[in-house]
Design a protein that fits this description.
alpha+beta, 20% helix
Length: 446
């Protein structure tokens, strides 16, 4: 559609191959020549033999053109389609024959575009017949059981070539045993603002049982998975992952129940399986050259990673368990620590002056160090004073090349120039100026 992520860098607006009108006048032979040899006018390099370090063969170029010709049909609504499947109890292996199944369709921005419902058939199946649906939508089905639990399928997508989507849907018996929960991976991301450190903790949670966890009270609305934050955490917010990329995280504050000033609980059941819940908690802590991120691990943590912006910030933990490793994220330093048991403290000590900070608009800016600049200024003033003293001393102890008046005038000029480059407290600057001026007045008449 001509709106890809590199479109803004193109010399000319990219061609919209995905619209039917383009193909009314398209010339496949010209397209072949352009792909093979490039186009100087549009700034496109060639991809044929001798034109590219990773060239396409003639067959591959024709395959590209053949794929492009299918794009207009892929953007047209699918005339008839179906989403179907069967519901089984994953704990007992039996087919579920009672209940209502809901079909949800989501746009590319994860906004709900369609919602339908129907009862299960006698053999535990569902079949939603659809007409004229966009090919970009993604689908899932959910079922609510008599005890109020809700179970969802994986996400799936229809296409003109595959207008029937089979989605497996499973239910589970409930469990109240929190020992079935474990954090497979915890990633901690740190960013700095001028007076605070912003922390994002991403939890990938496993339910290592063949049952759905409904909380230790048996009422999932009172909370299931618990998340801790440090004392003094501010601006706490939660996000839940619905897919595999950062864009698939949606606000989850309404799904969290506060239990104390530092503990929240996810007020939803947790299905069985690996990485069944992706949850991010974000918060701020005051930062003035040091801060400690510390809170107990709610469940066993298999792997913990820490990502800190590259710069002059030191990282430490209890007994130095955070160790540097090869970073997987550009411009960030990465640390790892051994696994933790439930209840052990996740402690991270940060100290130093970050080289970069993030402003309110998300821009990365150099972080000025006022204290360091003061010491540099004092050093510059010391050099200026030393130069002035040396000039006067040299004039008094050896035959001066200049009249003393001229030497003191030069010392005054050097002092003022240093002050202009590195402003210092007015009092220190003026005291030295007065000293030089008194000496200058003493020799002026001579």
């Amino acid at each position: 559609m001509g709106d890809g992520e590199m479109a803004a860098q193109a010399l000319l607006p990219p061609t919209q191959f995905g619209v039917a009108s383009y193909w009314e006048t398209a010339d496949p032979a010209l397209m072949f020549d352009t792909i093979q040899n490039g186009s100087l006018e549009s700034g496109m390099p060639g991809f044929g033999e001798g034109q590219n370090s990773n060239p396409l063969s003639e067959t591959q170029i024709w395959d590209v053109i053949a794929a492009l010709t299918e794009l207009p049909s892929l953007n047209q609504p699918i005339p008839t389609a179906a989403v179907q499947g069967q519901v089984t109890n994953q704990t007992t292996g039996e087919v579920v024959t009672e209940g209502t199944v809901f079909l949800q369709a989501f746009t590319a921005d994860f906004e709900e575009g369609l919602r339908l419902e129907q009862p299960l058939t006698a053999d535990g199946r569902f079949n939603f017949a659809l007409q004229d649906v966009p090919p970009q939508w993604v689908y899932r089905v959910i079922i609510r059981t008599a005890d109020g639990l809700e179970f969802g399928s994986e996400f799936g997508q229809l296409s003109p070539n595959q207008p029937t989507l089979e989605l497996a849907l499973g239910t589970y018996a409930p469990t109240q045993d929190a020992a079935v929960l474990a954090i497979a991976q915890l990633d901690v991301f740190v960013e700095f603002s001028p007076a605070a450190v912003s922390v994002s903790e991403l939890y990938l949670l496993d339910n290592r049982s063949n049952a759905v966890f409904v909380g230790e009270t048996g009422d999932f609305t009172e909370g299931t998975v618990q998340i801790n934050v440090p004392e003094g955490a501010q601006n706490v917010s939660f996000w839940r992952g619905l897919g595999t990329s950062a864009a698939d995280f949606v606000p989850a504050d309404e799904q969290m129940r506060p239990l104390s000033a530092t503990t929240w609980a996810f007020a939803r059941p947790v299905s069985a399986g690996e990485a069944v819940l992706q949850l991010v908690v974000r918060y701020d802590l005051p930062y003035n050259r040091q801060a400690t991120i510390s809170h107990p691990a709610p469940y066993p943590i298999g792997q913990a990673n820490l990502f800190v912006p590259q710069g002059a910030v030191a990282v430490d933990g209890t007994a130095g368990e955070w160790q540097p490793t090869t970073s997987l994220v550009p411009n960030f330093e990465q640390y790892q620590r051994p696994s933790l048991l439930a209840g052990q403290s996740l402690a991270i000590s940060l100290s130093g002056h970050p080289a970069w900070v993030t402003d309110s608009d998300g821009n990365l800016l150099p972080n000025r160090d006022a204290q360091q600049e003061l010491w540099l200024g004092l050093g510059a003033l010391g050099l200026a004073l030393g130069a002035a003293v040396y000039t006067v001393y040299h004039w008094r102890t050896s035959p001066p090349p200049l009249h003393p008046r001229d030497a003191l005038l030069q010392a005054l000029a050097a002092l003022d120039a240093a002050h202009e480059q590195h402003p210092l407290p007015k009092r220190a600057h003026e005291q030295q100026r007065q000293t030089l001026k008194r000496e200058l007045l003493a020799v002026w008449e001579d």
